């Protein structure tokens, strides 16, 4: 609405050469979707251009104390082209101001990258890479698919309790005994720290990764009848999901079908990091030796991950993602909050493909391993220097 309001006001109330200053959400400068349309800075397909003269970022200042928003102010002039870098002023508590410059990243309408005059080295790390990041599995509603393991040894079954308190929808609590094959230790964003990831829940995954929807009921009945019996108790809740109606209902796919699950979900090694955060915190995960024995660790939808076939490559990528220069690069174009740490973020980082014969790549991998073994190992500065040598 703020995007539309700004454009309508500029169209209706500004003469050519007229200036407009508006308080607006900061997300329009660094988000995808509507933000990309806003950053065209033109009225319609062939109308007047809008030249952005300056932006004032008040996110840290929080001028509206009781509002959960990201406040900014934009100053624009009708009929002039936007000249980059745009003066971008970040205001902090105590009325301190940092003067940065903003320019689009990855195309004329891309998210703005904001850097200081002494941070141009960070811009050299932007670019394409051969790695595709993905969202973690969406096992929704949490009250059905998220579980606590109460007893892992019940005659070949696992006694579990669902976790309705974890979700927003009212779900009845249940204790059930199910087959262990579809149950995995699961990782949420809150479970990830830099160089560390510790699962605290389990999740039921009943998705065919090759076809992108739930295993056929006949297969479930044959192999995992107790799991199917458990899910049957929540048939109505699962059928009423908005995502199910959007992606699965028309094709009459199994009512327990899930989302964001593909073959990459089952990669033997993964670099995972938190979404919806304020900084990158990545870790390498593989099998987890928990209550169910050594099982694949499942990243959930509040995480983003890159799957690899080797531990060496995963640790190389983790060192890159956790380095201070790359973290500063990401913060320069992705504002903290719900849009931070998405797969798009990784697509904008210039990461050379891992080469086991490259001494620099091998060294980064070794240092990541050392940091996973001991977070106080103190290799961060050397990692930073190695990444800047790309």
What helical percentage do the residues reach?
Answer: 25-40%
Q: Mean of residue pLDDT?
A: 95
The secondary-structure class comes to: alpha+beta
Largest sheet: 6 strands, mixed
Task: Characterize the structure shown.
The protein is an alpha+beta fold. It has a domain at 2-117. Helix content is 26%, strand content 27%. The protein has 13 helices and 22 strands. The strands form 6 sheets. A 6-stranded mixed beta sheet has the order 1-3-2-4-5-6. A 6-stranded mixed beta sheet has the order 10-9-8-14-11-21. The mean pLDDT is 95.
SSE inventory with pairings:
Elements: H1 2-13, E1 19-25, H2 34-38, E2 50-57, E3 71-78, E4 86-92, E5 96-104, E6 112-115, H3 120-123, E7 134-135, H4 142-145, E8 146-154, E9 157-162, E10 175-178, E11 183-187, E12 192-193, E13 196-197, E14 201-204, E15 207-208, E16 213-214, H5 217-223, H6 225-232, H7 235-239, H8 242-247, E17 269-274, E18 282-285, E19 287-290, E20 293-296, E21 298-299, E22 303-308, H9 311-322, H10 324-333, H11 343-347, H12 359-373, H13 380-388
Parallel strand pairs: 2-4, 11-21
Antiparallel strand pairs: 1-3, 2-3, 4-5, 5-6, 7-22, 8-9, 8-14, 9-10, 11-14, 12-13, 15-16, 17-18, 17-22, 19-20
Helix pairs in contact: 5-6, 9-12, 12-13
Short description:
The chain has about 400 residues and is an alpha+beta fold. The chain has helices at about 1-15, 35-40, 120-125, 140-145, 215-225, 225-230, 235-240, 240-245, 310-320, 325-335, 345, 360-375, 380-390; strands at about 20-25, 50-55, 70-80, 85-90, 95-105, 110-115, 135, 145-155, 155-160, 175-180, 185, 190-195, 195, 200-205, 205-210, 215, 270-275, 280-285, 285-290, 295, 300, 305-310.
């Amino acid at each position: 609405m703020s995007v539309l309001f700004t454009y309508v006001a500029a169209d209706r109330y500004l003469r050519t050469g007229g200036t407009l200053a508006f308080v607006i959400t900061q997300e329009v400068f660094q988000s995808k979707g509507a933000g990309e349309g806003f950053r065209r800075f033109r009225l319609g397909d062939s109308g007047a251009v809008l030249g952005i003269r300056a932006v004032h970022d008040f996110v840290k200042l929080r001028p509206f104390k009781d509002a959960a928003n990201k406040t900014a102010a934009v100053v624009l002039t009708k009929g002039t082209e936007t000249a980059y870098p745009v003066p971008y002023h970040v205001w902090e508590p105590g009325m301190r101001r940092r003067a940065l410059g903003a320019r689009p990243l990855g195309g004329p309408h891309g998210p703005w990258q904001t850097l200081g005059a002494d941070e141009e080295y960070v811009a050299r790390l932007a670019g394409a890479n051969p790695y595709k990041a993905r969202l973690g599995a969406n096992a929704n509603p949490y009250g059905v698919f998220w579980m606590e393991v109460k007893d892992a040894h019940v005659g070949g079954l696992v006694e579990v309790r669902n976790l309705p308190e974890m979700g927003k929808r009212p779900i009845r609590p249940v204790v059930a005994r199910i087959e262990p094959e579809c149950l995995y230790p699961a990782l949420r964003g809150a479970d990830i720290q830099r160089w560390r990831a510790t699962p605290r829940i389990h999740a039921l995954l009943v998705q065919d990764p090759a076809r992108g929807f739930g295993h056929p009921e006949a297969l479930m009945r044959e192999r995992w009848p107790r799991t199917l019996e458990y899910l049957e108790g929540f048939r109505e809740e699962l059928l009423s999901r908005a995502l199910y109606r959007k992606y699965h209902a028309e094709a009459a796919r199994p009512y327990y079908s899930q989302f964001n699950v593909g073959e990459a979900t089952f990669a033997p090694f993964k670099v995972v990091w938190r979404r919806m955060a304020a900084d990158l915190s990545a870790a390498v995960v593989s099998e987890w030796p928990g209550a169910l024995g050594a099982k694949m660790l499942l990243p959930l939808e509040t995480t983003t991950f890159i799957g690899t076939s080797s531990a060496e490559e995963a640790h190389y990528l983790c060192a890159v993602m956790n380095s201070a220069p790359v973290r500063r690069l990401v913060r320069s174009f992705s504002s903290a909050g719900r849009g931070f740490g998405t797969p798009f973020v990784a697509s904008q980082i210039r990461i050379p493909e891992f080469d086991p014969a490259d001494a620099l790549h091998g060294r980064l991998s070794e240092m990541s391993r050392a940091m996973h073994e001991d977070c106080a190992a103190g290799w961060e500065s050397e990692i930073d220097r190695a990444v800047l040598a790309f």
